[in-house]
Amino acid sequence: MSKSTPVNGNLIGILGGIILSTDSVFIRLMSIDNSWMIVMLRGLFMWGLVVLVYLLWPKSRAILGVPWITRQNALSTLFFCVASACFVNALNRGSIATVLVIISSTPFVSAIISRLFFGTKIDKTLMMAAIAGMLGVAIVMTGRSEGHDPMANYFALATAVSMALAFIFASKVENGTVGLPSIGGVLASACVVAFTGGSVLHGVPLLSHYQWLWLAIEGAVIMPLAMGLISLSTRFVSPVNAGLFLLLETALAPLWIYLFLHEAPTPQAIVGGCIIVLAVVSQTLRVKRQEALA
């Protein structure tokens, strides 16, 4: 692997994280109370775009991958499906700042899972950072914003675990990985329709033109592009590093929410978020120092 490869992987992931930071704003702008309807419709938009690109731009298939489930991508698709469903429910039910701080624990969850279940060697400093990060998550989850469903925090934690597993298994896929989150999205759509007996479809004709506009932007542009880029980065950097790109959403999304929707974070989210960010920054700087000395 050339020295430029990790740099390119980091740039790809950073771009994906910046784009992803706008996602929560669009979900709130939709003003759709039924979270499962959002999961269903945005999954269809995500997958529709991938299929369109796959058919009209054959050269993209090398990084896009196939827009259907295969034996090789089944596990990553499954966990992207779970993450998609949990992410929307977390954002639609709780404080966005709190939810995103919990989700920012993804790289630490990834490190712990890699060590416990896949035998990946993790150095002591990374494990210490992971433990500190999970302590930050525990602090965040003790806080509850008025008017928000306390289940949002658990949906957020499930998102972090699912995303960690999705990145781990995506890194093992030999072919294109950009389309994996979108396949997971459409799988989530099918599951929602099946589990609700089709009742989730009843409210679709009642959506306004503005709601369809925000759905289209979030589902067909923001999510497939952002998650596709982060998933692609796992071909060049470790799944743990890929999870770090989600911190850009943690840092930027509450700012967009505060500026446009005037929603302030809870004190627990601020304290826990600082612990998580400090843990990640310290670990990142340590790795860079090691690379510079190598």
TrEMBL record:
It is a multi-pass membrane protein. The keyword DNA damage does not apply. GO terms for cellular component: membrane. It is found in: Cell membrane. The chain crosses the membrane at residues 12-30, 36-57, 69-90, 96-118, 125-145, 151-170, 182-204, 210-230, 242-261, 267-285. It comes from the Bacteria. The keyword Zinc does not apply. Keywords: Cell membrane, Membrane, Transmembrane, Transmembrane helix. Residues 9-141, 153-281 form the EamA domain. Belongs to the EamA transporter family. PANTHER family: ACYL-MALONYL CONDENSING ENZYME-RELATED, EAMA DOMAIN-CONTAINING PROTEIN. This is DMT family transporter.
